Amino acid sequence: MERALIDFHTHPLLVQEMVAGNDELLHAQKKVFDIQNRLQPLETFHLELDVSGLQRAVVLPLDARTAKGSQIFSNEQIAELCRLSDRFVGFASVDPHRPDAAEQLERDVTRLGLRGLKLSPSLQEFAANDRDKAYPVYEAAQSLRIPLLIHAGMTWAPRSKSANPMDLEDVAFDFPDLKIVIAHFGWPWVQETAMLCLKYDNVFADTSCLYHDAPWEFMRHVFTERLPLTLLERSLRHKVVFGSDYPRVEIKNMVRAVKELGLSDQAQEMIFSKNARHLLGEAEATYK
Amino acid sequence: MIIRTLTLTVQSRREQELIDVTPEIERVIAESGVQEGLVNILTMHTSSGIIVTEGLPCLEEDVVTHLSRLCPSEGDYLHRRYLKIDGRIGFNADAHLKSVLGGISATFPITAGKMLKGGRQTIYFAEYDGPLSREYVVQVLGE
To answer: Which of A10, A44, A154 to mutate against chain B (most B CBs within 10 Å)?
Structure first.
């Protein structure tokens, strides 16, 4: 199977084979992430990718032991999920409040074969530019040459702080070899996100933003009203990856929303495939 | 009086499709032992339905196509807002409206231990927002 088209932002919160009977994951699904949908067999995730025309999905954990008292998938559970399906690309997460966070990241990425780092300053309750807690983790990710997917902007999760992507400017400057992906395009700070993507070679963003209206309405609002579509087509086509935030929204609906923007075939190929593969170390950058 | 209630699972594989569940209903009736009575079939989801029509692929496609014409996904729906009950935006109003139009249940008599239905009547689980693992209830009542 051609494995080129990738969803760079999914949470395996509803995968029955992993979550059913696991009280911590059920708690995380309902109380930390506030997702109330019923569990689905792994096959549904595969079918969701199929009807969306995608082959693979990045599956994300979140280590919020200090802030929320739970891990929303441990790194071991993400690795186990990836063993159930070769269509998943597993990322790691660590708790920046813990003194051994950097060491844990190095250990887990190496032994479990995880391919990126997920952090959420709002849910994990740390400042993205905290030099004491966050910088050692960034240093480790940079050394491991794995991308950082970091939550920015509003989150629906209860008791979460807003996360302004401008906090990431220090990080982008101080870690020039760390590829940083701003999740949710930083909404509502989409102009700030665009600025960071324009300014820093190592800053990217994903499309997983949906906070009102239908996905295609929201996407049109962000990329044709808040920002000109030409910005995405001409200047950021190599800096944006497709992400859905599934199961907060179905992958099929976010794919449709991005496709209906009216981008060129070349720009779509970069957003749905080439840029993600570049971030994952599978392909060279094709646009300088 | 026998009352047998079963929750069955069906995996839809497409965004919208009709899935023939007639054999499953007949199996439940046979296993219930009811000779004279009724069977009720009810979907448990508001973005799906239970439909009875002639079992032809062309009609299966027509049902989906024309419900979509009546309830287009790009319609202007108030439902497109954050729903606390789900923790997400509701943007499948079209699926809910198709469920309203197509119906959520069907009832058939049972006589001589078999479902009494027209020779061309086929019972479908109607998926309007798939692919998903879905549940529907079959309840057999009688003697």
So the answer is: A44
Token pair 């309203």 in the structure block, residue: B100
Taking CA–CA distances from A44, the nearest residue in chain B reads B132
**pLDDT surpassing 80 at residue A160:** no
Nearest to A51 among B91, B131, B133 (CB): B131
Structure tokens at A288: 């300088």
Residue B81 in contact with partner chain A when CB distance is under 8 A:
yes
Q: Is the Cβ–Cβ distance between A34 and A271 less than 8 Å?
A: no
Rounded to two decimals, the pTM is 0.93
Is residue A125 predicted with pLDDT exceeding 90? yes
Cβ atoms of residues A222 and A194 within 8 Å: no
pLDDT at residue A3 is higher than 70: no
Distances (CA, A) of A141 to A105, A118, A136, A150, B42: 8, 10, 9, 12, 52
Q: Which position has the higher pLDDT, A285 or B117? A: B117
How confident is the model at residue B82, as a pLDDT? 86
Are A213 and B89 in contact (CB < 8 Å)?
Answer: yes
Cβ of B87 within 8 Å of Cβ of A212? The answer is no
- Domains within chain A, CATH numbers bracketed: 6-279 (3.20.20.140)
Give the residue-averaged pLDDT of B53-76: 96
User: Which among A155, A57, A196, A70 has a CA at the least distance from the CA of A115?
Assistant: A57
Tell me the C-alpha distance between A30 and A24, whole Å.
Answer: 10
